[in-house]
């Protein structure tokens, strides 16, 4: 007996009716989850700063940097990696909603650049690039979990056909709704949720003494190694990828993993880490 899950969730929660000739406006799960990632993530950063005795004055600036870095990076990344002809012909489309195309690799690059600029503006406060990104990366993992669940609610980025009992038939996806498929969005969402707890456990162990670069390294290796593997279970997002041995998501994941390994190796050379090792050895 073949078993599977019929997935017909609506991407819309409700619709705000027309008011004085403006509207109507649909409220979608994807947008709500996207915003929720930032709101919950901000509370995590506030908790971390309080535990480490840091001022909360920079929280709003840090949050704004994150929002702009992720949205702009993800949008530019989508067009650069998947629709370069659109980016060069009509670059303003990057800024025009709805934001239907967001690339996780672009978001990662955007976060690295945005936090580097933020850290440069906070010299003398102890908020170095690696210090900031190691704390923020927990919220990035949380945001990734929410966004991938939003993809599931949109019945997009679907997996390839499967006969596993948890296969999803995406009834609202007119292109891929006929047969059970891997719920690849759910795989990635669960993986990111697990990563949130792993990263928080690392921080909770060391707190202010967390080896610089360790957490961002773990994030990059975890997320993009799994992304590389999950792509074997997913349908290609663009037609041109059918001509490649590896699709664009896998090609872009390789340098991300290598960068993560670099951060992990460098974290072992962090003076804070050497102090921890020396203190432990002297006991």
From TrEMBL:
InterPro entries: Lgt. A 1,2-diacyl-sn-glycero-3-phospho-(1'-sn-glycerol) binds at residue 148. It is an enzyme of class 2 (transferase). It is found in: Cell membrane. It is a multi-pass membrane protein. GO terms for molecular function: phosphatidylglycerol-prolipoprotein diacylglyceryl transferase activity. Pathway: Protein modification; lipoprotein biosynthesis (diacylglyceryl transfer). It holds the Pfam family LGT. Catalyzes the transfer of the diacylglyceryl group from phosphatidylglycerol to the sulfhydryl group of the N-terminal cysteine of a prolipoprotein, the first step in the formation of mature lipoproteins. This is Phosphatidylglycerol--prolipoprotein diacylglyceryl transferase.
